[in-house]
Design brief:
- The protein has a six-stranded mixed sheet.
- Helix content is 23%, strand content 35%.
- Helix 3 links the parallel strand 4 and strand 5.
- It has a single domain, classed as Cytidine Deaminase, domain 2, CATH 3.40.140.10.
- The chain is globular.
- It has 142 residues and is an alpha/beta fold.
Amino acid sequence: MLEISQELVDEIVAHARRDHPDEACGVVAGPVGTDRALRFIPMVNAARSPTFYEFDSLDLLKLYRELAANDEDPVVIYHSHTATEAYPSRTDVSYASEPNAHYVLVSTRETGAEDGPFEFRSYRIVDGVVTEEEVRIGSGSA
């Protein structure tokens, strides 16, 4: 189960809406070895695509160095889908390389960049197997 604050959900959804019609992507970091999603880190979709996301390799290297320096892990790896449901594509599954991360997908297909309904779902992806998990949204930090 993913436990995440309403503030972080709001930041992830706002990022997805800002980048619409392209997919948005980013990370929420937390202390090493925990499931505590605390620090929001929006990234640039290097692919600049409405159907695909890709972290820039230099940005990713910088991120992992920063995480190591802060004793953090990527607790949540998120991205948006702009025209389909919030479910991992085959490409998403093939790129999922963090077995302990929660893979969050936000779908902005109904409202695009505008306020309104959205899907927010979380998955574990290990060895190509996708398992949806419950999301518990709370107030304050997790």
